């Protein structure tokens, strides 16, 4: 049987790969033969690189702030300078706001979430696509959220940013559909990562949250990786501009 998700000789750039969904997906890509470049503000991403190398894979960490254009441009340049190409990107870095109703949210808090969760995806798309155009194509997956499809309480900046990521995904897909570049998104539901640790440790909050999920549990970060590897691969060659929920049935419910 051929391996339908073989990434041998492919170069994959992942933001937010120090922990959580990005780390799990970096390891999944590397396990399929990809050379992985991780852009993250967290130097802990060196541990993801070390784990990939110990398993016989190839990876590089480039300290990157996705909200800073020069930093994102340098990340793409370092990828191409090191490995000679950029085939796929997973724009996944993100943060949550401090939970608060909209009128009590500070302008600074709103701007911070938008700058990382939305502007960061725009900047990644901008510099990745600029390179992919010269190279003849590529595929990109952005991390949205179920909060990009339905609102959650007390997280207006995040809801706005993630709705924006789904919009950016559609817009970028349209702009480059005829130039060999596909752009899709995943919309994770509740995933057990550093981001949601506080929610899951709060027994009452966690019980109420799990009641909204037909599978009645949070996902493990590894459960997001399969969709990303599929969408990035030639198996998904007729799919672009789409957002796929990976949510244990939360939105369909
Ligand atoms: N965990 C969930 O339930 C859930 C649900 C839906 C969507 N998401 C989204 O999934 C993505 C990954 O989150 P996670 O759950 O793995 O959380 P996480 O906190 O484990 O990972 C987020 C990563 O992004 C990095 N990051 C933060 N700000 C950055 C910046 N300015 N520049 C570069 N890197 C930065 C962090 O260092 C971290 O490595 C996020 O976009 C998040 O919004 C998570």
Automatic annotation (TrEMBL):
GO terms for molecular function: oxidoreductase activity. Keywords: NAD, Oxidoreductase. SUPFAM superfamilies: NAD(P)-binding Rossmann-fold domains. PROSITE patterns: ADH_SHORT (PS00061). Residues 10-202 form the Ketoreductase domain. InterPro entries: KR_dom, NAD(P)-bd_dom_sf, Sc_DH/Rdtase_CS, SDR_fam. NCBIfam families: PRK07231.1 (NF005559), PRK12826.1-2 (NF009466). Belongs to the short-chain dehydrogenases/reductases (SDR) family. This is NAD(P)-dependent dehydrogenase, short-chain alcohol dehydrogenase family.
């Amino acid at each position: 049987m051929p391996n339908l998700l073989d990434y041998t000789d492919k170069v994959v750039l992942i933001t937010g790969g120090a922990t959580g969904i990005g780390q799990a997906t970096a390891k999944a890509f590397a396990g399929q033969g990809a050379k992985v470049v991780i852009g993250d503000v967290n130097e802990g991403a060196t541990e993801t690189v070390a784990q990939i190398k110990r398993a016989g894979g190839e990876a590089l960490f480039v300290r990157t702030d996705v909200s800073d254009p020069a930093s994102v441009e340098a990340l793409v340049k370092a990828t191409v300078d090191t490995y000679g190409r950029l085939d796929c990107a997973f724009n996944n870095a993100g943060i949550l706001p401090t939970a608060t109703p909209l009128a009590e949210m500070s302008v600074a808090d709103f701007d911070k979430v938008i700058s990382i969760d939305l502007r960061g995806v725009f900047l990644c798309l901008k510099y990745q696509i600029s390179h992919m155009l010269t190279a003849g194509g590529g595929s990109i997956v952005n991390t949205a959220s179920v909060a990009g499809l339905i609102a959650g309480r007390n997280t207006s900046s995040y809801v706005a940013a993630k709705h924006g990521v789904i919009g950016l995904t559609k817009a970028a897909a349209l702009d480059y559909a005829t130039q060999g570049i596909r752009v899709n998104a995943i919309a994770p539901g509740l995933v057990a990562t550093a981001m949601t640790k506080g929610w899951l440790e709060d027994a009452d909050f966690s019980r109420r949250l799990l009641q909204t999920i037909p599978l009645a549990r949070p996902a493990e970060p590894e459960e997001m990786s399969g969709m990303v590897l599929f969408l990035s691969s030639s198996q998904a060659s007729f799919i672009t501009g789409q957002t796929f929920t990976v949510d244990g049935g939360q939105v369909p419910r």
